[in-house]
Amino acid sequence: MSKVTMESIAIELGISKNTVSRALRGLSGVSEDVRQKIVTLAEDSGYKIKSETGTLYHIVMVHRKVLAEDLTFWPVVLSGIMTFAADKGISIRVITIDSENGNGNNSQLQSIKSQKCDGLLVVSDIDDKSLHTLTEFNLPMVVVDYHSDIFDCDYVVTANRKGIFKALSHLVENNHTKIGFVGNKADRYSYRERYHAYRYYMQEFGLLVDDRNVWLDVGYHEYDFYKRKIDELGNKELNHNCNLATAYLCVNDAMAVDFAIALGEYGYHVPDDISIVGFDNIGYPGGRLFTTLDVKKQAMGKRAVEQLLAKISNPEKTFETISINTELITRDTVKKL
Are residues 123 and 142 in the same domain? Predict the structure, then answer.
Protein backbone atom coordinates (compact mmCIF):
# COMPACT_ATOMS: atom_id res chain seq x y z
CA MET A 1 0.00 0.00 0.00
CA SER A 2 1.44 3.37 -1.01
CA LYS A 3 2.18 5.97 1.64
CA VAL A 4 -0.62 8.42 2.32
CA THR A 5 0.42 12.03 1.80
CA MET A 6 -1.28 15.41 1.63
CA GLU A 7 -0.87 15.20 -2.14
CA SER A 8 -2.64 11.83 -2.34
CA ILE A 9 -5.48 13.17 -0.19
CA ALA A 10 -5.75 16.20 -2.48
CA ILE A 11 -5.93 13.99 -5.58
CA GLU A 12 -8.56 11.74 -3.98
CA LEU A 13 -10.81 14.72 -3.17
CA GLY A 14 -10.06 16.70 -6.32
CA ILE A 15 -8.71 19.71 -4.44
CA SER A 16 -5.36 21.44 -4.09
CA LYS A 17 -2.57 20.26 -1.79
CA ASN A 18 -2.57 23.74 -0.22
CA THR A 19 -6.26 23.31 0.73
CA VAL A 20 -5.45 20.00 2.41
CA SER A 21 -2.54 21.57 4.28
CA ARG A 22 -4.63 24.50 5.49
CA ALA A 23 -7.46 22.22 6.60
CA LEU A 24 -5.20 19.90 8.60
CA ARG A 25 -3.47 22.87 10.23
CA GLY A 26 -6.77 24.53 11.14
CA LEU A 27 -6.15 27.64 9.06
CA SER A 28 -8.84 29.86 7.56
CA GLY A 29 -9.92 29.77 3.94
CA VAL A 30 -11.42 26.27 4.04
CA SER A 31 -15.14 25.63 4.52
CA GLU A 32 -16.10 23.41 7.44
CA ASP A 33 -17.67 20.89 5.06
CA VAL A 34 -14.47 20.53 3.02
CA ARG A 35 -12.32 20.54 6.18
CA GLN A 36 -14.33 17.67 7.63
CA LYS A 37 -14.03 15.63 4.42
CA ILE A 38 -10.25 16.12 4.48
CA VAL A 39 -9.90 15.19 8.15
CA THR A 40 -12.14 12.13 7.74
CA LEU A 41 -10.22 10.86 4.69
CA ALA A 42 -6.90 11.50 6.45
CA GLU A 43 -8.02 9.45 9.46
CA ASP A 44 -9.49 6.62 7.39
CA SER A 45 -6.32 6.43 5.29
CA GLY A 46 -4.05 6.28 8.33
CA TYR A 47 -2.48 9.68 7.75
CA LYS A 48 -0.99 10.96 11.00
CA ILE A 49 -1.90 14.55 11.80
CA LYS A 50 0.95 15.89 13.89
CA SER A 51 0.30 18.42 16.63
CA GLU A 52 2.74 20.73 18.38
CA THR A 53 3.06 18.17 21.18
CA GLY A 54 3.01 15.10 18.98
CA THR A 55 -0.25 13.95 20.57
CA LEU A 56 -3.30 13.18 18.48
CA TYR A 57 -6.74 12.95 20.11
CA HIS A 58 -9.79 11.60 18.36
CA ILE A 59 -13.00 13.44 19.24
CA VAL A 60 -16.55 12.83 18.08
CA MET A 61 -18.77 15.89 17.72
CA VAL A 62 -22.53 15.27 17.88
CA HIS A 63 -25.06 17.83 16.75
CA ARG A 64 -28.56 18.07 15.34
CA LYS A 65 -29.13 18.05 11.59
CA VAL A 66 -30.84 21.44 11.72
CA LEU A 67 -27.54 23.10 12.69
CA ALA A 68 -26.44 22.62 9.10
CA GLU A 69 -29.34 24.84 7.99
CA ASP A 70 -28.14 27.78 10.10
CA LEU A 71 -25.83 30.14 8.22
CA THR A 72 -25.18 32.67 10.98
CA PHE A 73 -24.70 31.55 14.59
CA TRP A 74 -23.54 27.94 14.55
CA PRO A 75 -20.96 28.13 11.74
CA VAL A 76 -18.96 30.54 13.91
CA VAL A 77 -19.16 28.25 16.95
CA LEU A 78 -18.14 25.26 14.84
CA SER A 79 -15.28 27.25 13.33
CA GLY A 80 -13.98 27.93 16.83
CA ILE A 81 -14.11 24.21 17.57
CA MET A 82 -12.53 23.00 14.33
CA THR A 83 -9.78 25.63 14.14
CA PHE A 84 -8.60 25.18 17.72
CA ALA A 85 -8.83 21.40 17.42
CA ALA A 86 -6.70 21.37 14.29
CA ASP A 87 -4.10 23.59 15.96
CA LYS A 88 -3.81 21.05 18.76
CA GLY A 89 -3.60 18.03 16.50
CA ILE A 90 -7.11 16.82 17.29
CA SER A 91 -9.16 14.98 14.71
CA ILE A 92 -12.92 15.45 14.83
CA ARG A 93 -15.51 13.07 13.46
CA VAL A 94 -19.02 14.52 13.10
CA ILE A 95 -22.24 12.63 13.79
CA THR A 96 -25.54 14.36 13.02
CA ILE A 97 -28.76 13.29 14.69
CA ASP A 98 -32.43 14.13 14.59
CA SER A 99 -32.98 15.63 18.02
CA GLU A 100 -36.75 15.28 17.70
CA ASN A 101 -36.47 11.50 17.48
CA GLY A 102 -34.50 10.07 20.40
CA ASN A 103 -35.29 6.46 19.45
CA GLY A 104 -34.07 6.93 15.89
CA ASN A 105 -30.70 8.31 16.98
CA ASN A 106 -29.42 5.20 18.73
CA SER A 107 -27.79 3.50 15.72
CA GLN A 108 -25.85 6.64 14.81
CA LEU A 109 -24.67 7.13 18.37
CA GLN A 110 -23.67 3.50 18.77
CA SER A 111 -21.34 3.96 15.78
CA ILE A 112 -19.13 6.06 18.06
CA LYS A 113 -17.80 2.80 19.50
CA SER A 114 -16.69 1.57 16.07
CA GLN A 115 -13.67 3.87 15.95
CA LYS A 116 -11.20 5.30 18.43
CA CYS A 117 -12.75 8.09 20.49
CA ASP A 118 -11.08 10.00 23.33
CA GLY A 119 -13.94 12.37 24.07
CA LEU A 120 -17.29 13.80 23.00
CA LEU A 121 -18.47 17.27 22.07
CA VAL A 122 -22.24 17.71 22.01
CA VAL A 123 -23.28 20.93 20.29
CA SER A 124 -26.62 22.65 21.02
CA ASP A 125 -29.90 21.16 22.26
CA ILE A 126 -30.22 17.39 22.30
CA ASP A 127 -32.98 15.09 23.49
CA ASP A 128 -32.53 13.44 26.89
CA LYS A 129 -32.60 9.92 25.46
CA SER A 130 -29.65 10.65 23.17
CA LEU A 131 -27.76 12.45 25.92
CA HIS A 132 -28.34 9.45 28.21
CA THR A 133 -26.91 7.13 25.54
CA LEU A 134 -23.80 9.31 25.27
CA THR A 135 -23.22 9.37 29.03
CA GLU A 136 -23.28 5.57 29.07
CA PHE A 137 -20.10 5.50 26.94
CA ASN A 138 -18.23 6.80 30.02
CA LEU A 139 -16.13 9.13 27.89
CA PRO A 140 -15.09 12.69 28.73
CA MET A 141 -17.91 14.86 27.36
CA VAL A 142 -18.57 18.58 27.00
CA VAL A 143 -21.97 19.94 25.97
CA VAL A 144 -22.01 23.30 24.18
CA ASP A 145 -24.79 25.90 24.57
CA TYR A 146 -27.16 23.50 26.27
CA HIS A 147 -27.61 22.36 29.85
CA SER A 148 -29.45 19.49 31.51
CA ASP A 149 -29.94 19.12 35.25
CA ILE A 150 -30.35 15.37 34.74
CA PHE A 151 -26.89 14.43 33.45
CA ASP A 152 -23.51 15.12 35.04
CA CYS A 153 -20.90 16.29 32.56
CA ASP A 154 -19.15 19.50 31.59
CA TYR A 155 -21.14 22.31 29.99
CA VAL A 156 -20.06 25.48 28.15
CA VAL A 157 -22.99 27.87 27.81
CA THR A 158 -23.82 31.49 27.03
CA ALA A 159 -24.32 33.71 30.06
CA ASN A 160 -27.92 34.29 29.00
CA ARG A 161 -29.23 35.62 32.31
CA LYS A 162 -26.47 38.19 32.64
CA GLY A 163 -27.00 39.21 29.03
CA ILE A 164 -30.70 39.85 29.63
CA PHE A 165 -29.80 41.85 32.74
CA LYS A 166 -27.50 44.04 30.62
CA ALA A 167 -30.22 44.55 28.00
CA LEU A 168 -32.90 45.49 30.51
CA SER A 169 -30.47 47.77 32.38
CA HIS A 170 -29.80 49.60 29.12
CA LEU A 171 -33.52 50.06 28.44
CA VAL A 172 -34.21 51.24 32.00
CA GLU A 173 -31.32 53.72 31.75
CA ASN A 174 -33.10 55.09 28.69
CA ASN A 175 -36.29 55.53 30.77
CA HIS A 176 -38.26 52.61 29.35
CA THR A 177 -40.68 50.98 31.78
CA LYS A 178 -43.10 49.27 29.36
CA ILE A 179 -40.84 46.52 28.01
CA GLY A 180 -42.14 43.54 26.07
CA PHE A 181 -40.52 40.27 25.07
CA VAL A 182 -40.50 38.54 21.67
CA GLY A 183 -39.62 34.85 21.96
CA ASN A 184 -39.54 31.97 19.52
CA LYS A 185 -41.76 28.92 19.43
CA ALA A 186 -38.72 26.66 19.01
CA ASP A 187 -38.13 25.03 22.40
CA ARG A 188 -34.44 25.80 22.86
CA TYR A 189 -32.46 25.95 26.08
CA SER A 190 -31.05 29.43 25.43
CA TYR A 191 -34.46 30.82 24.53
CA ARG A 192 -36.00 29.48 27.75
CA GLU A 193 -33.16 30.94 29.81
CA ARG A 194 -33.55 34.36 28.21
CA TYR A 195 -37.30 34.42 28.78
CA HIS A 196 -37.07 33.36 32.42
CA ALA A 197 -34.34 35.95 33.00
CA TYR A 198 -36.55 38.63 31.43
CA ARG A 199 -39.39 37.92 33.87
CA TYR A 200 -37.01 37.70 36.82
CA TYR A 201 -35.20 40.96 36.15
CA MET A 202 -38.36 42.84 35.25
CA GLN A 203 -39.50 42.05 38.76
CA GLU A 204 -36.10 43.01 40.19
CA PHE A 205 -36.36 46.40 38.46
CA GLY A 206 -39.87 46.82 39.85
CA LEU A 207 -41.43 46.80 36.38
CA LEU A 208 -44.79 45.31 35.45
CA VAL A 209 -44.85 42.54 32.86
CA ASP A 210 -47.79 43.14 30.53
CA ASP A 211 -48.51 39.69 29.13
CA ARG A 212 -50.19 41.26 26.12
CA ASN A 213 -46.67 42.23 25.04
CA VAL A 214 -45.01 38.90 25.82
CA TRP A 215 -45.06 36.74 22.68
CA LEU A 216 -43.51 33.29 22.94
CA ASP A 217 -45.09 31.40 20.03
CA VAL A 218 -43.54 33.29 17.12
CA GLY A 219 -41.78 31.59 14.22
CA TYR A 220 -39.26 33.05 11.82
CA HIS A 221 -40.74 35.32 9.15
CA GLU A 222 -44.26 34.96 10.56
CA TYR A 223 -45.21 38.54 9.75
CA ASP A 224 -48.91 37.80 10.04
CA PHE A 225 -48.38 37.06 13.73
CA TYR A 226 -46.91 40.51 14.32
CA LYS A 227 -49.64 42.13 12.27
CA ARG A 228 -52.30 40.50 14.42
CA LYS A 229 -50.59 41.75 17.57
CA ILE A 230 -50.22 45.27 16.18
CA ASP A 231 -53.89 45.30 15.16
CA GLU A 232 -54.86 44.18 18.66
CA LEU A 233 -52.60 46.57 20.57
CA GLY A 234 -52.14 49.68 18.48
CA ASN A 235 -52.73 50.04 14.76
CA LYS A 236 -51.33 53.48 14.03
CA GLU A 237 -53.19 53.80 10.75
CA LEU A 238 -56.53 53.18 12.48
CA ASN A 239 -55.70 55.61 15.32
CA HIS A 240 -56.16 52.91 17.94
CA ASN A 241 -55.13 53.59 21.51
CA CYS A 242 -51.64 52.18 21.64
CA ASN A 243 -51.05 49.39 24.14
CA LEU A 244 -47.80 48.31 22.55
CA ALA A 245 -44.73 48.49 24.78
CA THR A 246 -42.25 51.31 24.20
CA ALA A 247 -39.44 48.75 23.90
CA TYR A 248 -39.11 45.04 23.12
CA LEU A 249 -36.39 42.60 24.01
CA CYS A 250 -36.14 39.94 21.29
CA VAL A 251 -34.80 36.46 22.00
CA ASN A 252 -32.42 36.75 19.03
CA ASP A 253 -31.54 39.14 16.23
CA ALA A 254 -33.56 37.26 13.60
CA MET A 255 -36.73 37.93 15.56
CA ALA A 256 -35.72 41.57 15.95
CA VAL A 257 -35.36 41.93 12.18
CA ASP A 258 -38.76 40.35 11.51
CA PHE A 259 -40.50 42.48 14.13
CA ALA A 260 -38.99 45.71 12.83
CA ILE A 261 -40.14 44.88 9.28
CA ALA A 262 -43.70 44.26 10.48
CA LEU A 263 -43.70 47.48 12.50
CA GLY A 264 -42.55 49.42 9.46
CA GLU A 265 -45.49 48.16 7.42
CA TYR A 266 -47.81 49.74 10.02
CA GLY A 267 -46.02 53.07 10.04
CA TYR A 268 -44.00 52.51 13.21
CA HIS A 269 -40.34 53.49 13.16
CA VAL A 270 -37.48 52.02 15.18
CA PRO A 271 -36.45 53.63 17.49
CA ASP A 272 -38.60 56.77 17.18
CA ASP A 273 -41.82 54.92 17.99
CA ILE A 274 -40.59 51.61 19.42
CA SER A 275 -37.15 50.54 20.61
CA ILE A 276 -35.78 47.05 19.96
CA VAL A 277 -32.92 45.06 21.48
CA GLY A 278 -31.82 41.74 20.00
CA PHE A 279 -29.51 38.97 21.15
CA ASP A 280 -26.52 37.12 19.52
CA ASN A 281 -25.07 39.98 17.42
CA ILE A 282 -25.85 38.48 14.03
CA GLY A 283 -25.81 40.62 10.92
CA TYR A 284 -28.10 39.75 8.03
CA PRO A 285 -27.43 40.75 4.40
CA GLY A 286 -29.26 43.99 3.71
CA GLY A 287 -30.70 43.96 7.21
CA ARG A 288 -30.45 46.50 9.98
CA LEU A 289 -28.04 46.09 12.89
CA PHE A 290 -29.68 46.26 16.30
CA THR A 291 -28.61 47.04 19.81
CA THR A 292 -27.83 43.51 20.91
CA LEU A 293 -25.88 41.15 23.13
CA ASP A 294 -22.76 39.85 21.43
CA VAL A 295 -22.38 36.14 22.10
CA LYS A 296 -18.70 35.19 21.83
CA LYS A 297 -19.43 32.36 19.45
CA GLN A 298 -15.92 31.40 18.35
CA ALA A 299 -14.62 31.71 21.92
CA MET A 300 -17.38 29.36 23.05
CA GLY A 301 -16.24 26.72 20.57
CA LYS A 302 -12.61 27.08 21.54
CA ARG A 303 -13.39 26.96 25.27
CA ALA A 304 -15.36 23.74 24.80
CA VAL A 305 -12.37 22.02 23.22
CA GLU A 306 -10.08 23.33 25.97
CA GLN A 307 -12.43 21.92 28.60
CA LEU A 308 -12.61 18.57 26.86
CA LEU A 309 -8.82 18.34 26.65
CA ALA A 310 -8.59 19.08 30.37
CA LYS A 311 -11.10 16.31 31.08
CA ILE A 312 -9.28 13.84 28.84
CA SER A 313 -6.02 14.61 30.65
CA ASN A 314 -7.67 14.37 34.06
CA PRO A 315 -10.83 12.23 34.02
CA GLU A 316 -11.32 12.76 37.77
CA LYS A 317 -11.58 16.52 37.30
CA THR A 318 -14.76 17.94 38.83
CA PHE A 319 -17.57 18.63 36.37
CA GLU A 320 -17.98 22.31 35.54
CA THR A 321 -20.55 24.58 33.93
CA ILE A 322 -18.69 27.42 32.24
CA SER A 323 -20.59 30.58 31.24
CA ILE A 324 -19.21 32.62 28.36
CA ASN A 325 -19.97 36.28 29.00
CA THR A 326 -21.82 38.51 26.53
CA GLU A 327 -21.15 42.12 25.58
CA LEU A 328 -23.81 44.77 25.11
CA ILE A 329 -23.44 46.39 21.68
CA THR A 330 -25.34 49.66 21.50
CA ARG A 331 -26.65 50.87 18.16
CA ASP A 332 -29.38 53.23 16.99
CA THR A 333 -32.40 51.05 17.82
CA VAL A 334 -33.02 52.31 21.37
CA LYS A 335 -34.48 55.77 21.99
CA LYS A 336 -34.09 57.68 25.22
CA LEU A 337 -37.53 58.71 26.49
Answer: yes
Is the residue at 61 inside a domain? yes
* Same-domain pairing of 61 and 24: yes
pLDDT in tens, 134-143: 999 999 999 9
Range of the domain at 173: 160-295
The stretch 149-172 carries a mean pLDDT of 97
Query: Of the ranges 46-50, 173-177, 210-214, 222-226, which one carries the lowest mean pLDDT score?
Result: 46-50
Contacts made by residues 167-171, CB under 8 angstroms, sequence distance 24+: 167/249, 167/277, 167/279, 167/291, 167/293, 167/328, 168/198, 168/201, 168/202, 168/205, 168/249, 170/277, 170/291, 170/328, 170/330, 170/334, 171/247, 171/249, 171/275, 171/277, 171/334
Instruction: Kindly state the average pLDDT of the residues 78-106.
Output: 79
CATH code of residue 289: 3.40.50.2300
